[in-house]
Here is the input.
Amino acid sequence: MDLLLTDEQRLLQDSVAKMLAQAGGVKRTRGLRGKDGGFDRAVHERMGQEGWFGLLVSPESGGLGMGLSELGLVLMEAGKVLAPEPIAAATISAYALSHGASNPELAQVSSGIVEGRTLVIPALGLGDGSRGEGIKASTANGGKTRRLDGNCDGVPMAAYCDGYLVAAEGAGGAPLFYVPKAAKGLSIASRPTVDGRPFARLTFENLTAGALVTGPDAGIDLQRRLRDLLLFAQAAELVGVMSAALDITVEYLKTRKQFGKAIGSFQALQHRAVDDFAKIVSARSFLFQVAAQGIDISSSMASALKAHASAEALDVCKSAIQMHGGIGFTEECDIGLYLKRAMWLSVWLGNEAHHRARYAALMG
Amino acid sequence: MFRKDSPIDADFRAEVRGWLEANLPHDLRGKTARPHPPEIMPWYKALSRRGWIAPHWPKEHGGMGATLAQQIIISEELARLSAPHLPVQGVNHLGPILMKYGTPGQKAQHLPKIISGDVIWAQGYSEPGAGSDLASLTTRADDKGDHFVVNGQKIWQTWGHYADWMFMLVRTDAAATPKHAGISFMLVDLKTPGIKARPIMNIADDDEFAQMFLDDVVVPKENLVGPLNGGWKVANDLLAHERLGTSSPQHTMEVLARIERVSTANGKAADPVFRDKLAALRIKVTAQAAMFWHAVDIIATGQPLGPSSSTMKLVATDNLQAATDLLIEAAGAHGADAERLETGSEPTDVTQIFLQSRRATIYGGSSEIQRNVLAKRVLGLPG
Ligand SMILES: Cc1cc2nc3c(=O)[nH]c(=O)nc-3n(C[C@H](O)[C@H](O)[C@H](O)COP(=O)(O)OP(=O)(O)OC[C@H]3O[C@@H](n4cnc5c(N)ncnc54)[C@H](O)[C@@H]3O)c2cc1C
Here is the structure.
């Protein structure tokens, strides 16, 4: 079941695929693993120049004014070649910041993100208060300054960006702040991941908060929107990851010979590959049906989608390794990188179990 | 696991536990990858000196001649302390084969050095073109009177670049039909001129295996095990031992222990949904253990296990992978961490073992191959 794409969407998809291939594809990702955040700021800037990060930003604010289907297409292509740049984070931060654009400081950050010069990563944590997590906002100086205290875990590439969109609580709501990386009172504890792109725990200690992206009243919606859009974005990347993992595997099944024939002629593997294919097709349909509902994405659907895409992508990637046999178990074979990326994406902002529980809670 | 220890067994368990706690070095505990020879071999030798390196070997060959209950106890106690994986090609795979097929000279030369840990063995079966279809192997051994000359390539030899000796399958009759009727099993000293090993990194960045290049390698005739062109039966007998080792519940129990540590440290252990998943897995592993120790019992009576080793390997490896899936789930937001997690008294690795566990359904005959074997040989299905 091919996607029903407009000519414009097809053009976008092709241009993204072309740019990523020219940049060096999976080989480039392999070379960047574990070094300086595992991605390339220069390539990130090129993506900005291509307009990707302004996808969700209105044309009045300097963006393309497109929607989630287009974002899904871009991220699927990125997932297919394991592009390591934080495309989802940039696109969705730009969207969130464009809501605070009347503030000149934020307007500047926002256009920096869209152009790819500035890199802002959402720091949302799991949002469930687990293990004492959470950022408290409080006011000081008779209300003149706001302070942030607490911690936020699982922030990707935190040491290699310029600032964060921080989901806080308190001060009469759930505000979202822009905090530059250089802010006093912020410490970053990075840890390496199997994907070669670090996660970090941010600790805020008596930090003077930067600009408020939206006021306390509207804050709840934007925090939530930001989280749900990122969940959608991860699902899109996961769909790309699993579909490329299967494509690579199907190619291998056609070429590797055992018992005098291509291993793809064995029914056991044909059935396995077809099961994986069906998983991909249904996850992809799910993704684009959710996209079609528009930017006002429902939290329950976002969690359902993230849970589903994580589970299916991990399964498909494990199966892909199995169908490769011994070579699939080596470091030098790309198929392992797909499993590692699926692990990373499924973990960021909550794994399958986390989002099943969130979905169940939201459904009541 | 199933029954209380008898008083004698309880004493034995206390003795094993006490000795392991006192003697298993702390930095060898909780390792996912097998530590390199300089780290692991002193421990191997310590176990050997204590007489516990080969519980399942008969006393006449330097083993412990342990009862089934004692073997279970040793394996449970090793799992309890997260003891590291030992090199097993000698003690679990080749040893039993030499006892059965070896000449008196071969037994005398090799068995004591397996027990002592003075010789590390590699398994030279697979080739670039012969994995699942092992019988199509092309590494040739040409008969030169009092010796063979071997040429070809092997791949995926676990610890091939660290091993001292390798047992291997070679083609000694190129014209044989079926193909497996022209294969012989022989032993080669890896210091022989003409052998090169290229280490290969695995998916968890461990230099686990090697590709072996053999160029005009001279192998004395007395290194042939079993009859000329009769290597296939020997090889398969050995693989059954390998599958038995892979089926040991010890591997999954070790992962269960990690799940416990991680979920206790981060509080997931209190989540009823998580507890239900863990209980379901524990029950499966208990059933697996029952099957495993049943098989060990059958072997102890001298009966062949036949294709049952394939059934066990399927169940065991499915459980192992289900356990590493649950371990990743338990780690939550840390389920992609490359480093070990802080979990109370000792840190716990979750992602390396998850990646490493991919192996279980590939080596020693993949799960697909085991299913093919069982469908035909046990269920008697046509085709
Ligand atoms: C960690 C590890 C350690 C190893 N250690 C050793 C060692 O020490 N010594 C050694 O000699 N070898 C070793 N091996 C090699 C191992 O035995 C082979 O990887 C295995 O036999 C599979 O062969 P292959 O890799 O060529 O895969 P292939 O045979 O190419 O298989 C690829 C895929 O095709 C499937 N397939 C193949 N044939 C069929 C069929 N007829 N029906 C259905 N599906 C089929 C397989 O199940 C697999 O999914 C090791 C492998 C691993 C992963």
